[in-house]
C-alpha cells in the first residue's frame, strides 16, 4: 500500500509535465531535460522487460512506407507503464523521415502564421482603443478597388500599382517599402489609399489611415490632457504595420507639428515600417508647405527624400474625378 501510495504521488507530481508532453501531439515528443528519457518505452520494449500496463496501450500501426510495426510509447513509473502517446513512435526509414520533416516544417509555418495573426489582432485592438479602427471616415468606406474608375492608361497604371501593393503587402512590409502618391486635386489618390486600407483590414492587418491634420490633432489632444497619453498615440503611429497619411502638406505647419511628423516618419523609416503618403503638391511645393515660417528646411527635405527613397511613386495628374460626376 505504501509503495502504491508513493508511486501515485510521483505520478501526481509529474502530471502537469506529462500532460504537456502528450497534448496535441502527432507523435510522442522527446521529454525535456527534467525527464529521464530512459523511462519512455514502447509497448514492445515494456513487454520485453516484463512491465505492467496501468491502461491498455493502443493497437500498434504499420509504417505506410516500409511496413515496419510502430508501437506507441508510454512513461515508466517503477514497474508500471502508463500515459500512452496518442500516436505511435515515428518510423526511422528514409521515406518516413522525409514525410515527418516536411510535416513538422508545415506545422511550424502554421504556428508562426497563427502567432502573427494573434499579434496583429492585439495591435488592432489597441488601435481601436486609442484612435478608432483605421481612421477612415464613413464617406470612404465604399472606396474599394472595385469602385475605382480606371479608364485611361495613366489611371489603369495607378490602379495596378496600388492593387499590387495591397495584394503583395507582406513582401513590401518585409522590405519597409511604401507608396508616395502625388497629383492634382480629385484624381483618386485618397480613393486608392482607402482601397488599400479596406483590403488589408479585411485580411486582419492593422492599418491607420489619417489625414495629416487628423493625425496631428490626435496627438495634440493627448498633449492637452486627454485620457490617452501622447506616448501611446505616438507608439501606435510609429509601430502600426501600415501608416497612411492622406493630404500631406495641407496642414498649417509649425515647429511642433514638423517635429512630430519627423519623429514618426523617421522612426518608421529606420525600423523598416512602410508608410503611404498622398499629397496634392509636387516635391518642391510640399517641402515649402511643411517648412515652418522662419525655420530651415533641411529636416523637411531629409524626410521627404527618405519617403521617396523607400516608396514607389505614383503620379496622378489628370482631370478632377469630381468634375466628371464621380464621387
CATH level-4 homologous superfamily of the largest domain: P-loop containing nucleotide triphosphate hydrolases
* Rg on CA atoms, Å: 30 Å
Which spans have pLDDT < 50 for at least 5 consecutive residues?
1-35, 323-327
- Major sheet attributes: 5 strands, parallel
Treating each run of at least 4 consecutive H or I residues as one helix, how many helices? Answer: 11
Secondary structure: helix percent: 40-55%
**How many individual β-strands?**
11
SSE order, one letter for each helix or strand: HEHEEEEEHHHEHEHHEHEHHE
Average pLDDT, rounded to a whole number, is 82
Q: If you consult CATH, what is the topology of the largest domain?
A: Rossmann fold
Quick summary:
49% of the residues lie in helices and 13% in strands. With 327 residues, it is an alpha/beta fold. The longest helix has 38 residues, at 94-131.
Task: Please supply descriptive tags for the structure shown above.
2 domains, alpha/beta, disordered N terminus, 11 strands, four-stranded mixed beta sheet, single chain, 327 residues, 11 helices, elongated, 49% helix, five-stranded parallel beta sheet, disordered C terminus
Question: What's the helix and strand layout?
Answer:
Blueprint: H1 2-22, E1 40-42, H2 43-48, E2 52-53, E3 61-62, E4 69-70, E5 73-77, E6 80-82, H3 94-131, H4 153-167, H5 169-175, E7 178-183, H6 189-202, E8 207-211, H7 212-223, H8 230-239, E9 242-246, H9 255-270, E10 275-279, H10 283-290, H11 298-309, E11 311-316
Parallel strand pairs: 2-6, 7-10, 7-11, 8-9, 9-10
Antiparallel strand pairs: 1-5, 3-4, 5-6
